[in-house]
Design a protein that fits this description.
This is Alpha/Beta hydrolase fold protein. This protein has 341 residues and is of the alpha/beta class. It contains nine helices and twelve strands. Helix 1 packs across helix 9. The relative contact order is 0.13.
Length: 341
């Protein structure tokens, strides 16, 4: 007799969990937003000035990365900065090849004149933290090996990508950037990198964008700001409960770095990006104040009148003038930060 599996939990239209341990990540929210979570296939030819490649960087761990290559890489004699991107999704959903990331990071690669590398991070609850952080840091170590010309991994038809990165990438100007929970990973990777010798690679900057920082006790913004299809309190709390190490609370340093000591850490310059209507802006600002108090080099970029990860919402970018304007402002701020570091 076949026993029908039962749903044990559901997270805001993004994820369904069953009693047999199976996890389904099929978006069931408003259908007009579905396309933003659809994967975009890589393309070796340039579309709007950017080519996209998916390659394996570690066969043992099945770690893969998506690489955005601006057309200027083939023509420019100057070395290009490298931006290492960590996708969001509360450590539980999303992939590096989703349209929402493709739409923004092809643009950033083109406007910043930078190569962007985005690993496919392991997801919770099957792979709880620090799995995604380990994947992120191992990608940074792979870049270090490229800088050192130590990696001999065959990339097959993508061999030229490795060669282009090794010769044209500026490994003294590597920037970390991450959306939402990816912003948490940015800080964790920056902390870990500060304790190790990455020569000849150098971190030139860290850009947490709307990081998922919060405490067990609700902040003022969690209680007062409006929810959206892209971030509800149910999503926020459930994802972190599933993603953090077993038995942890939201006061864990990964989600509450405001209370974690920053003394003695040789962190790169930070550009902390926050949104005025974000549920987590209060704790984001706590983190900003903690960085300043510790004497760290930190700039603040505030997006007014918009909420969490607004720039990933292609529908809003196309039809809402405020979202469009603030997205342009955000991209411009990131491009200027990269150019100046």
């Amino acid at each position: 007799m076949v026993t029908e599996r039962k749903v044990i939990d559901h997270v805001s239209g993004w994820m369904t969990m069953y009693d047999d341990g199976c996890v389904e990540r099929t978006f069931t929210g408003p259908p007009q937003f579905k396309f933003m979570s659809d994967p975009v296939a890589p393309h070796a030819h340039f579309i709007d000035g950017v080519a996209v490649h998916d390659i394996s960087i570690n066969d043992d761990s099945n770690l893969r990365v998506r690489i955005y290559v601006p057309e200027v890489l083939d023509t420019n004699t100057a070395k290009l900065p490298i931006i290492l991107h960590f996708h969001g999704g509360g450590f539980c959903i999303s992939q590096a090849d989703w349209f929402m990331y493709y739409n923004i990071y092809t643009r950033l690669a083109r406007e910043a004149g930078a190569v962007i590398v985005s690993p496919f991070l392991r997801l919770a609850p099957e792979h709880r933290l620090p799995a995604a952080i380990d994947d992120a840091y191992n990608t940074l170590l792979w870049l270090k090996d490229l800088a050192d010309h130590k990696t001999n991994q065959s990339l097959g038809t993508n061999q030229h990508i490795r060669d282009s990165l090794s010769t044209k990438g500026d490994f003294t100007r590597v920037f970390l950037i991450g959306d939402s929970s990816g912003g948490n990973i940015v800080h964790q990777v920056a902390k870990k990198a500060s304790e190790e010798n990455l020569n000849p690679l150098k971190l030139a900057g860290a850009i947490p964008v709307h990081p998922g920082f919060l405490r067990s006790v609700k902040s003022k913004s969690e209680m007062e700001k409006a929810e959206s299809p892209f971030l509800t309190l149910d999503m926020l709390y459930k994802f972190l409960n599933l993603g953090l190490p077993e038995g942890s609370t939201r006061d864990h340093p990964i989600t509450c770095p405001m209370d974690d000591s920053l003394e003695g850490l040789d962190l790169p310059p930070y550009l902390l990006c926050v949104a005025e209507e974000d549920l987590v802006i209060a704790t984001n600002m706590e983190f900003y104040e903690a960085l300043k108090k510790s004497g760290k080099n930190v700039e603040l970029l505030v997006s007014n009148g918009v909420g969490h990860s607004f720039y990933l919402n292609k529908v809003a970018i196309d039809f809402d003038p405020v979202t469009s304007k603030q997205t342009n402002k955000l991209i411009e701020g990131i491009v200027n930060f990269v150019a100046n570091h």
